[in-house]
Amino acid sequence: MVLDTFYVERAGLLTTIQDKGRYHYMKSGISVSGVMDPYAAEIANILVNNDENEAVLEISIVGPTLVALVDGVISITGADLDARLDGKAVELWKSIHIKKGQRLTFRAASSGMRAYLAIQGGFEAEFILGSYSTYLAAAIGGIQGRAIKEGDILQSREDFSSNKSHLTAFSKSIIPQYKDQYEIRVIVGPDFGCFKKESYRTFFNSVYKVSNQSNRMGLRLIGNSIELKKGKEDILSDAIMFGTIQVPASGDPIVLMADRQTTGGYPRLATAITVDLFKLAQARSNDTLRFKEVSITEAQQLYRNYQLWLRFFRGSIKQLNMLKAKK
């Protein structure tokens, strides 16, 4: 059942419908897209009893004003955009009951870059090639392949009228702290033969600023240039992924993000590990990044730990709801 859920009174800077992305079509040149901060989006969905891949609103820098058209259960995670419900501050990383007619407002981000709004049942959108995600460059998914705009009606896929959902909060001790400097762990890339010997020393001993030219496709970094060997400025186009760090002839690294292309012809210096992608997603213009090399084994173990922790958290929420339902 599809319900009209929110009226968009004000659109904000860039708010799109996203899920985990459009996989299995990279061979056809179609970007994965999806949420920039998978961690915050997953937790938002878990807090409202959704599948972890349900569509959410990704809200960047300056948020929208939404008027509820139905009672429901929502959660907001990620960056702090001073969310308020009828003027009263909303606690982040927690499930919240919202009533028909209430106004949910967001302001400019005071920390972090992107917030995630989940609603129980997930947002309804154009389902293209296995995903609801908005891919702006190709104008597909979401709402006609674009960001939300004033006057839009956002829909969800669940009837809340008889829903007795229990509210759940995320432990404050493990809520990410968004700062203006981050350490990003990386695995050395496959094209190390394209770089001069001192290039990696330069990279790992330098501090880079995030350029204001960054977007959902990639973060452009400002700092010490990475030197390429003569004649190695370009390679045959090869696979790239979320977190791949490419170096063009200018020597200024680019960290590829959710809306990246499917292949690239710049040498790949390194790749950020999965569990640190949220830091890149939340980095703002002029924030600083340092990079630290880790082994593939270490990266895999960190990812396993992350998945085990998510499974434990999800299971704990289900058990808690079952206990509350019996009372």
TrEMBL record:
Gene Ontology MF terms in the entry:
ATP binding; hydrolase activity
What range(s) does the Carboxyltransferase domain occupy?
Answer: 27-309
Superkingdom is: Bacteria
What protein is this chain from?
A: Carboxyltransferase domain-containing protein
UniProt keywords, alphabetically: ATP-binding, Hydrolase, Nucleotide-binding
In terms of SMART domains, this protein maps to:
AHS2
Q: InterPro entries recorded for this chain?
A: CT_A_B (IPR003778), Cyclophilin-like_dom_sf (IPR029000), PxpC (IPR052708)
Q: Per the record, a Pfam family? A: CT_A_B
List, alphabetically, the SUPFAM superfamilies matched: Cyclophilin-like (SSF50891)
Keyword Nuclease annotated: no
